[in-house]
Amino acid sequence: MRAQHSRAAEALAVRVEPGGEFWGWAGRTLGAPARTATGVPAWLRLVSGPEDKASGKLWDGALDAQHAFGDLDGHRPALLAVHDAVDDGIAYRAELSVRVDDPVLSDAPILQHEAQLPDSWWNDLAGTLENVAAVDTDRVAVRQQYMDRGIPEFVGIPAPAASCWTTAHADVHWANLTEPLRLLDWEGWGMAPEGFDAATLYAYSLLQPDTAARVRAAFPVLGSPAGLAAEATVCAQLLQTVARGDNLTLEDQLRTWSEELRHR
After folding, report:
1. Based on the domain organization, do 125 and 225 belong to the same domain?
2. Can you give the pTM of this predicted structure?
3. For a Cys staple, 172 with which of 28, 183, 197, 226, CB 3.0–4.6 Å?
4. Please, which domain of life does this record's source organism belong to (predicted)?
5. Are 124 and 255 part of one and the same domain?
């Protein structure tokens, strides 16, 4: 991966800066700070995968997002260039983006402390997600088939009908957010039940009651009939991860939430 990352930097005419290497899940991605030939700070991320699977929603997510959203008034790091290569049956995509120097609000998706954020940040987040929701796309983040199967299994109710489907980032958690607001990681965006992004952030805030309440205040779709399908979907998804041994610290809060949903 390091050799391919270096080749991608050369192809994109950027210089990688030492000391900031960041590895993604299972070594599938490698990112590092870089500078363009004119000295502009950037971030060079390399994604790898089998050549025959180097397509589709996750592979093209960042590029599709650039075409659909641009930089969302500065709240999304713009994608500057891509470079594709194949070596010995493995495909590599290098994505050169505007660098975000502000740290993410949490090292992990689940918030471990109350978020001390100004009202302006919450307003920016709500406005940004509203702009995302208004974009038309044929990408799919949540499938009705999953809702029909997963919600009864993990929440214990029939899948609520989604009154509206909108475009969602689909991974709005605290390790993908900064202050000032930047929303990172656009691999999985697509259509989802209305309120899906708000429900996701709420789920990852459940260990911090004040922040969870602030999420609900910022997104009144939560707790409403219109948001029930999204809330049940997110709750089911995370309870499924618990069943696999992940996100165990959220288990009690998720089961309390599922009980609330069963009585809505």
Report:
1. yes
2. 0.94
3. 197
4. Bacteria
5. yes
